[in-house]
Inverse folding.
């Protein structure tokens, strides 16, 4: 039900009550007019609530989009992580080790096989080993 429909109904009811040419000093007139008056208040409140709800929906949608953006960003970050990880095989025990590409470029850093504790990071050993 749209708010416009309710406004139309309200206008119709007000038209009816105006058409009665009510004399406001009778008890029945007071009752009828105050009911119409209250209806008007209800419709206004309803319109406000509907407006607020629409704003909230828009707000939630924008938060939803922000969350989707953050998720995309995190996924891209994880992808980059994968891309920068180099897979090497321990020449001592054959264990596959994942090493950050940045560490590979630093010749001062030794990489220790977590399986056999063999130090495998030096230039001679890394030669010929594919990513
Ligand atoms: Zn090893």
């Amino acid at each position: 039900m749209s708010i416009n429909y309710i406004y139309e109904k309200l206008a119709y009811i007000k038209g009816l009550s105006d058409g009665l040419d009510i004399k406001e000093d009778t008890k029945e007139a007071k009752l009828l007019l105050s009911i119409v008056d209250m209806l008007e208040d209800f419709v206004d409140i309803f319109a406000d609530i509907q407006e607020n709800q629409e704003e909230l929906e828009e707000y939630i949608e924008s938060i939803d989009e922000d969350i989707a953006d953050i998720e995309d960003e995190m996924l891209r970050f994880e992808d980059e992580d994968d891309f920068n990880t180099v897979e090497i095989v321990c020449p001592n025990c054959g264990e596959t080790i994942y090493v950050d590409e940045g560490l590979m470029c630093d010749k001062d850093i030794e990489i220790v096989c977590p399986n056999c504790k063999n130090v495998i990071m030096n230039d001679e050993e890394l030669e010929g080993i594919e990513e």
Notes: Residues 90, 92-93, 95, 113, 115-116, 118 surround zinc ion (CB under 6 Å). Strands lie at 85-89, 96-100. The CA atoms of residues 40 and 112 lie 78 Å apart. Residues 3-81 form one domain.
